[in-house]
Amino acid sequence: MAGTANCIDIILAIILPPLGVFLKFGCGHEFWICLLLTFLGYIPGIIYAIYAITKSLGSLILPRRTRRPMDVACSAACS
User: Fold this and answer.
1) In whole angstroms, what is the distance from residue 48 CA to residue 24 CA?
2) Which of 14, 18, 22, 47 has the fewest CB atoms within 10 Å of its CB?
3) Contacts of 45 (CB under 8 A, 6+ apart)
4) Is pTM, for the whole model, over 0.70?
5) What is the rounded distance in angstroms from the CA atom of residue 9 to the CA atom of residue 50?
């Protein structure tokens, strides 16, 4: 089901870029950037909308990198 939602988000981003971004992020800064780019040119709006949607999908799938204890010790020793 998640794949279908992603496909629909991308199709909406191609048809009407600000709508696709708004449905994904709400009225945040991503929406306003997409709206401005769409006013300046339809193609930049599409490119940004697809980038923003796929970037958010990647952050949902990939876990954040956790710091290893050695990284913390090295950063504390170097300070």
Assistant:
1) 13
2) 14
3) 17, 18, 34, 35, 37, 38, 39
4) no
5) 9
